[in-house]
Amino acid sequence: MSILIISGTNRANSVSQKIAKLYQSKLKTLNTDSEILNLSNLPKDFIFSALYENGGKHPEFNPLREKVMKYQKFVFIVAEYNGSFPGVLKAFIDGLKYPDSFKSKKAALVGLSSGVQGGALALSHLTDILSYLGTNVLGERVKIYRIEENFKNDELINKTFDQLLDAQVKNFVEF
Amino acid sequence: MSILIISGTNRANSVSQKIAKLYQSKLKTLNTDSEILNLSNLPKDFIFSALYENGGKHPEFNPLREKVMKYQKFVFIVAEYNGSFPGVLKAFIDGLKYPDSFKSKKAALVGLSSGVQGGALALSHLTDILSYLGTNVLGERVKIYRIEENFKNDELINKTFDQLLDAQVKNFVEF
Amino acid sequence: MSILIISGTNRANSVSQKIAKLYQSKLKTLNTDSEILNLSNLPKDFIFSALYENGGKHPEFNPLREKVMKYQKFVFIVAEYNGSFPGVLKAFIDGLKYPDSFKSKKAALVGLSSGVQGGALALSHLTDILSYLGTNVLGERVKIYRIEENFKNDELINKTFDQLLDAQVKNFVEF
Amino acid sequence: MSILIISGTNRANSVSQKIAKLYQSKLKTLNTDSEILNLSNLPKDFIFSALYENGGKHPEFNPLREKVMKYQKFVFIVAEYNGSFPGVLKAFIDGLKYPDSFKSKKAALVGLSSGVQGGALALSHLTDILSYLGTNVLGERVKIYRIEENFKNDELINKTFDQLLDAQVKNFVEF
């Protein structure tokens, strides 16, 4: 069993990507393989060239579609933008194959924010979408707020968040 | 393993209670025991006498608290009132022991409505609450709309809904 | 014009009630009258005796129903319980007359929490309900987190929150 | 006063665009000018070239940013994709100037769906985002379900939806 970690923004050098790597290292400690899908690697014009009537026809986007279909477990790293998830994350989901991508699969959610919400609404919205798609979402959501203060030099210096993440990782492996 | 089905309203002779019984019979077909907790059996003044500083002190409410604590799996039958779940359902949850009642347990949700929503927002709100409490909610939510047309004489005469319910029951038993 | 402030919990000596009084004093500064409806004054068994088939028949609950119907503007003070609003608040709404109570009226929301969310999900859920009822909700929601630290001796000692509340009060009077 | 109608998908020949035009004609009946912003006219790679560090630097995206800033009232036509709004709509919002684009402005929401939800969750999520941005959202949301049956030849042949839309248009002009 291997897990796909979706780094849910296309911002360059994002904190999401750094948290994705941290998550991967924590999974490795539990002998669990994982792969990171960084949305900053999506084709630049995918939102026009890989959705709707172009769904499934894009030579660069298709391998990502296939990747999602073969995994059974997903971790979403979700930065809070404008009170919800980044638009690119939903656009990516809009380009995936329905219903094979997420139906009866499993997901864990991690929220990140500069402010104090930790992406609470972002994770709520994403849970609605995943539930609509038939994915079982781990109840335990980790919401890391004030990310600039609490995460430095690729490390969660706030140890409470580090422990919450450890607990989620363990529970998700067993989920 | 046995499942607690929460009939989520205190309205007398509610459709929720009838759907709860239907759910129970479907579980039985899969050799799965269940018990129904009908919120119409709550103490009449529990919202004042069994919450907050009175939490855990009410001789009639306490057995219900204990009941919730001993179960690992819950089905919530949720009628849509005023665009969400019935207030009594949340008030009941507010009277339960935290975090032992729902943490790391499992839940499946069924929504009912007179209109066309099937309790979509009610189930979304309840999922937020259960996620907050650390419950793993089955992604597959069944939303039975136009309940008066589709459910008659204790039967889901709309066979699509009956099949959706069968599928959820099966998946929840295996969840 | 006068405003009805709903202190949204029935917990005795609640912080919600104290914030309701603070809100009232701020409204007074702007020459705006208001009245506080404290849910701790609801009939103890209203959830059974004043809803559904008993709607509109309860001699003590009816005056509260009438009160809501005559107001055009509402402030909801909403403490976060179990990741959402208190169940009693929704149960109260379930006992009101539909659709005359809130249709085409106006509301402002204030969230309170011990943790860092400030009731973000509680206010989201309540907005859904009020939107369903046709109420125009002021976009500007004030979310006061870590209420025990930030509110002492009937005062918002965290001046940022006090200013956010002042701004909301002003904008709601003009809304 | 003029209103900006945002046709919230980039799908070619979308129903959203047709409903946007219908909305515009209804506004005209009330002597209210409006302009339609069709997201299918966004630069193909805007999600990479006009957001984050590129915010405000894109020669084709910037005029759209400016357009949003000058309007005070917005109508969002929101098709339901995957249980929420189209990702492109949120990505568009992510590229706008904060907080000048929506703060203290007004919005009305129309949901469209092939199924029976009428975009209920999509509109709930969008309301959260707009509330976060400080926009006052008209409580009255119109949710047009089974759009293929109910909208034909550029007309809402289901007259109930047509009347609901008329009522919203009138109330939004006065909002």
CATH superfamily of chain A: Flavodoxin domain
* Major beta-sheet overview of chain A: 6 strands, parallel
In sequence order, what are the helices and strands of chain A, one letter per element?
Answer: EHEHHEHEHEEHEEH
Structural class assignment of chain A? alpha/beta
CATH topology of chain A: Rossmann fold
State the oligomer. Answer: homotetramer
CATH class of chain A: Alpha Beta
Q: How large is the count of helical segments of chain A?
A: 7
User: Most extensive interface: pair and counts?
Assistant: A-D, 34 and 34 residues
β-strand amount of chain A: 15-25%
Compute the number of structural domains of chain A.
1
Mean pLDDT of chain A: 97
Number of strands of chain A: 8
Examine the secondary-structure arrangement and name the CATH architecture of chain A.
3-Layer(aba) Sandwich
Task: Name the overall outline of chain A.
Answer: globular
Tell me the span between the first and last alpha carbons of chain A. 12 Å
The poorly predicted ranges of chain A are none
